[in-house]
Amino acid sequence: MKLLGSRWTRWFPSRLAHRFALVAAALAAVALVVTTLASWWLINEQHDQALKALTANERQFRAATVGADLNALASRMTEIAASTILATGLVDSIGRETYLGPFLDSIRQINGIRVQVMFTDFQGNEIASNSGARFSPEQLAWLRGHLETGQAVARVFTSPQGNELVAIEPLVYPRTSSPEGAVFYKVDLSHIKAGPGMSLAWGTDQPHPKDDTPDTLVPSPKVFEPLRLRLHSQLSGPDVGMKLQVPYLHIWLISLTLFSAVVLVGMLLARLLTLDLQRLEAFSRQLFGSGLRTERAPEGGSHEVASLAQSINDMLDRLHEQHADLLREREKLTALTEVLQAADRNKDNFLAMLGHELRNPLSPIRAGAELLRRIPDTDPRVLRTCEMISRQVGHMTKIINDLLDVSRVTRGMVTLENTELELAEIISGAVEQVRPLMEARQHHLTVTVAPEPITVMADRARLIQVLSNLLANAANYTKPGGQVWVEVTASPTEAVIKVQDNGVGIAPDLMPEIFDLFTQGKRASDRREGGLGLGLALVKHLVALHGGTVAAASPGMGQGAVFTVRLPRLAASQAIAPTAMPVAATTVGKLRILVVDDNVDAAHSLAQVLSLDGHSVEVSHDGPSALALARTSSFDAFILDIGLPGMAGTELARRLRTLPSGEDALLIALTGYGQVSDRQKSAEASFDHHLVKPADCDALQRLLGDWAHARQP
Predict the structure, then answer these.
(1) Bridge partners for 11 per DSSP
(2) φ, ψ at 213 (rounded to 5°)
(3) H/E/C letters for each residue in 37-60?
(4) Across 111-203, where does the E strand assignment appear?
(5) Which pLDDT score, from 0 to 100, does residue 485 have?
(6) pTM here?
(7) Distances from the Cα of 45 to the Cαs of 33, 42, 244, 245, in angstroms?
(8) Residue 105, phi then psi, degrees to nearest 5
């Protein structure tokens, strides 16, 4: 084979184009035979398709004809049922024979189809019929069984005499809710001419297994649609005798000869044509099997193959350069990734520290304002100033909480504590949170809740946060004295909460990004409180965590806006009975309390507020001094900061629990750290409660009161 190949290559063209031309000439004979066979096959297929198309058109035409007859029949019966003659016949028993008989006798044929008609009362009893009308007991029983429905219905009855299409056209008048009577009619299906070679089928009847001709649906009026009337063709397929006869024997012999020659010649030519290509293929397998190396492709052989080898070598040179560039870029990306990861960690640490450091000064400010408010005979101007300070502290606290919540939510660090909740309770809690803002801006709030219980699986605190954010958003973007509506509805599968206002509305260009971070609409000139554009972003993420959706809509600027929250609803069988909410206990007796905080102002201001409530309070600013006081004195409750110098508040709590005075005492963590991990650490350190600065004095007082109440014998 090697010797034969060397002889052929002496006179064989060096260009692949010429080589391929020679091979194409050898294969032309095969193409000629294949074309002949394909032509015969295509002609026969077109012949078959033409006959099938003619048959299909015939079926469609026959079906349309039958449908026209059925439409004429149904339309005529509808006109008869609506005629005043039948309406009069229901109440005029004397004149029935005078005009009803002749009237019904005039209806014997419709479009050449003989029709039997009977006029009945509301119980299906015959009043009059046309001559020759005969209905079997089975048909009359079917009439009485379907008359009360007041709907036009039809059925095909099969009997030895043939198949009969029977239908009811009820007489329903505006003054009644049930039919006063009916027009009962039938036709013999054999009288409906389907055409030669075709039969009428109905229901779920299938064609004969040996007949693969599809049925054609008859376009029927509404009353006959449930019957699924169809035309079934009994015509056979295309006439086999009309097909062109193929000389199979001659074509088979010629094809076999040409095939054998082409196979032999093709195998030889393929080897000669691909010798240099095979060398390139072997080089490629070696190259990609062992990785990118410095070897070069062999550049011998035909002109095209040599040019291809040169191109491959140029490509390899370029790949080597790009590989070196990629290695350098990968090193840069690795370094940049490490920098970004460090920056992300620093950002998280910064946000946590920011929340802690911002909450620390807010705590003494709130406690100081509360202290001034509780001092007897305080100047009214001071009281108003205290209220202003409390409001601004609350606003600042909300901004800090939203900022930290957005950071946790966007990083997937929020875990929901889902329980079965009634939306009425959630709406009440959210409204209670925003009521001071609504009252300050003199808004009129309307809440509409569906009367039936609507239960969802949700985190109570987070869902209240969602609704209070939407309500606060509506209040801030609505002028004083405006309207805010809350509507709660439900379907079997979802609960829907709508918060609507008549405020400034949402601009169309802002609508696609209304739920993005730091996105805000144009604020009204009288807005007293600003924001960072975090509330709606929080709403979107929290609703998504609950498996729901939130959408915004607005007719335009100055026309208000509506936000719609959709949540999966629990089925009635899944929802649990609501449990009674515990009643907050009031403070009972005087407690000895130790406040430990390295922030001197925060510690003393809180101590003074608790003293005004009648408690005996001592203050410490670090862990060791607090332990020393606990060893020498007995305390009922400890309020500890977590971030204490030297000894953390969690370690202090563990040590206090080992002392006799701290074993059964109430331990409350009051700290600037409020993330889920911080609360878990507090619980592990035996704290009873975890409060985030600035603490609500009323909430703290309720905790102390509940604990004192529980200790009473």
Answers:
(1) none
(2) -70, 125
(3) HHHHHHHHHHHHHHHHHHHHHHHH
(4) 113-114, 116-121, 126-129, 153-159, 162-171, 181-188, 198-201
(5) 92
(6) 0.39
(7) 18, 5, 11, 13
(8) -65, -25
pLDDT digits (tens, 9 = 90+) for 212-225: 567 888 888 988 88
The two structure tokens encoding residue 214? 């599809």
Mean of pLDDT over the chain: 76
Residue among 583, 537, 581, 544 at smallest CA distance from 407? 537
Give pLDDT tens digits for 104-152. Answer: 888 888 888 889 898 888 888 888 888 888 888 898 889 888 888 888 8
* 444 membership: H or E segment, kind and range: strand 444-449
What pLDDT, on a 0 to 100 scale, did the predictor assign at position 465?
A: 82
pLDDT digits (tens, 9 = 90+) for 477-486: 888 889 999 9
CB neighbours of residue 249 within 10 Å: 8
Strand partners for 155:
166
CB atoms within 10 A of CB 16: 18
CA distance 350 to 344: 10
- 530-559 CB burial, b ≥16 within 10 A, e <16: ebebbbbbbbbbbbebbebebebebeeeee
The amino acid sitting at 607 is A
| Residues β-bridged to residue 167 | 154, 185
| Burial status of residue 219 (CB atoms within 10 A of its CB: 0-12, 13-18, 19 or more) | middle
**Res 582: pLDDT:** 41
Q: What is the pLDDT of residue 362?
A: 63
pLDDT grade for 617, boundaries at 50, 70 and 90: confident
Residues 6 or more apart whose Cβ sits within 8 Å of residue 526: 479, 480
* 165-180 confidence digits (pLDDT tens): 899 989 888 777 788 8
Give pLDDT, residue 291: 60
**Is the bond preceding residue 209 a cis peptide, omega within 30 degrees?**
no
Say which residue, 379 or 703, is predicted with more confidence. 703
Q: Are 502 and 563 in contact (CB under 8 A)?
A: no
- Other beta carbons within 10 Å of 283: 16
Closest CA to 496 of 566, 578, 441: 566
Taking the C-alpha atoms of residue 432 and residue 462, their distance in angstroms, rounded to an integer, is: 15
pLDDT tops 50 at residue 452 = yes
- Tokens standing for 287? 């190259």
- Let me know: does 514 contact 445? Beta carbons within 8 Å: no
Long-range contact list for 488-494, CB < 8 A, 24+ apart? Answer: 488/423, 488/424, 488/427, 488/448, 488/449, 488/450, 488/454, 489/450, 490/450, 490/452, 490/454, 490/569, 491/569, 492/569, 492/571, 493/568, 493/569, 494/548, 494/566, 494/567, 494/568, 494/569
Radius of gyration of the chain (CA): 46
**Intra-chain end-to-end CA distance of the chain, in Å:** 111
pLDDT of residue 588: 47
Q: Which residues of 631-665 are buried (b: 16+ CB within 10 A; e: fewer)?
A: eeeebbbbbbbbbbeebbbbebbbbbbeeebbeeb
Would the pLDDT of 407 be above 50? yes
Q: What distances in angstroms separate CA 502 from CA 274, 466, 475, 539, 555, one per listed residue?
A: 80, 20, 10, 20, 10
Place of tokens 């515990």: 582
DSSP β-bridge partners for residue 188: 164
Tokens matching residue 331: 């090193």
3-class SS string, 686-698: CCCEEEECCCCHH
Asked whether residue 301 carries a pLDDT value surpassing 70, the answer given is no
Read out DSSP for 469-493?
Answer: HHHHHHHHTS-TT-EEEEEEEE-SS
State both tokens at 567: 């949540």
CA distance 666 to 593: 9
